[in-house]
Specification:
- This protein is mostly beta strands.
- It is built from 2 helices and 12 strands; from the N terminus they run βββββαβββββαββ.
Length: 165
């Protein structure tokens, strides 16, 4: 069978990259690549100065194109942090800062490289681990907290919060 893996966060409303495996293709070792850029999408791997990094070098992944949302509903601070001016597009265009790390391979395939923040995905939900720790620290008997995702049994991810009283 033909297998298609699509990459696209909710903020882009559709997938902006895809990796296709045809019958007989060798299964990639490790994480399946994000793939090639889809039409009507622009994908940038940028450094901290919003400059493109060369192939093989990891940078933060930014997305632009017709599917990018305008921002988060009633969250102007978070919107301005994640939906930024696009220095490569038309005046007034925006791009979405994914928080994902990625790199371009020499063959034009995009590979996932982790996260730049402390966000995790558990059972399809995005979890801000720093927010979990902050909620624990808000209790008067907690001095410090750290939240992590543990997978003690394969396929059974759980959020665990460690606290110091």
């Amino acid at each position: 069978i033909r297998v298609v893996g699509g990459y696209g966060p909710t903020e882009v409303t559709l997938h902006c990259a895809e990796f296709v495996m045809q019958p007989g293709d060798e299964t990639p070792s490790g994480v399946v690549p994000l793939g090639r850029v889809m039409p009507n999408s622009q994908v940038y791997v940028l450094d901290e100065r919003l400059q493109p990094v060369p192939p093989g070098v990891a940078g933060e992944l930014y997305l632009s194109g017709s599917g990018v949302a305008r921002g988060y509903y009633r969250r102007p601070g978070l919107s301005s942090e994640r939906f930024v001016a696009n220095p490569f597009g038309a005046p007034g265009s925006r791009m979405y800062r994914t928080g994902d790390l990625a790199r371009w391979r020499e063959d034009g395939i995009l590979e996932f490289g982790g996260r730049v923040d402390n966000q995790a995905s558990v059972r399809g939900f995005r979890i801000e681990l720093d927010e979990v720790a902050a909620a624990a620290v808000s209790h008067p008997d907690v001095a410090y907290a750290a939240a992590v995702v543990r997978e003690d049994r394969p396929g059974d991810k759980r959020i665990v919060c460690y606290v110091v009283a």
